[in-house]
Amino acid sequence: MTRIREATEADAAALAALRALFLTGHEADRAFADDVAAWIGEEGERRTTWLAERDGAVLGMASLFEYRRMPKPGLPGSRWGYVSNMFVREEARDAGVGAALLDAVIAAADERGYARLVLSPAERAIPFYERAGFVVPDGGAGTHRLLVRPARTAPGTIRA
């Protein structure tokens, strides 16, 4: 069974290994793990990163960064999330790991009351995100792929 949990600074080596594998196809060295640990500390409370694990092995990761909109007169504050660093090891793909990570991200966004989630996926990942309710916004995003998942709101509720 896949376990999804929030990563901490103590998980820097695991996160670095996944990130390096995603970007270079190779494992991370100690210096890169140190860079990731510093990044985690700098990101603070506005970034949440999750790890997927099974039988003690780290299989994947996903991050969510919180953007806080500048206040508008007469309206409550608004926040939205940017999903990034979604990666699952090749040997664990098509086994529900990515879906479990994305479910954790969406659940956190819903719990936090985010107005929307935004991401910029690889072309091949678009159907995966569309199945989770992400859509291409009106007008597209120029030459960039941009998908948005509006918040789940009660009827009659408007989110800015």
Which features does this protein show?
160 residues, alpha+beta, Aminopeptidase, 6-stranded mixed beta sheet, 4 helices, globular, disordered C terminus
The CATH superfamily is Gcn5-related N-acetyltransferase (GNAT)
Strand order of the largest sheet: 1-2-3-4-5-7
Strands, total number: 7
CATH topology: Aminopeptidase
Number of domains: 1
Distance between the termini: 38 Å
Unreliable sequence segments: 154-160
Overall pLDDT score: 87
Largest sheet: 6 strands, mixed
Helix fraction, binned, reads: 25-40%
Series of secondary-structure elements, N-terminal to C-terminal: EHHEEEHEHEE
What sort of overall outline do the alpha carbons produce when their principal axes are compared? Answer: globular
| Strand content range | 25-35%
Question: Count of helical segments?
Answer: 4
Describe the protein.
The structure is a single chain. This protein is of the alpha+beta class and 160 residues long. The protein has one domain (3-150): Aminopeptidase. 31% of the residues lie in helices and 29% in strands. It has a 6-stranded mixed beta sheet with strand order 1-2-3-4-5-7, sandwiched between helices. Mean pLDDT is 87; it is low at 154-160.
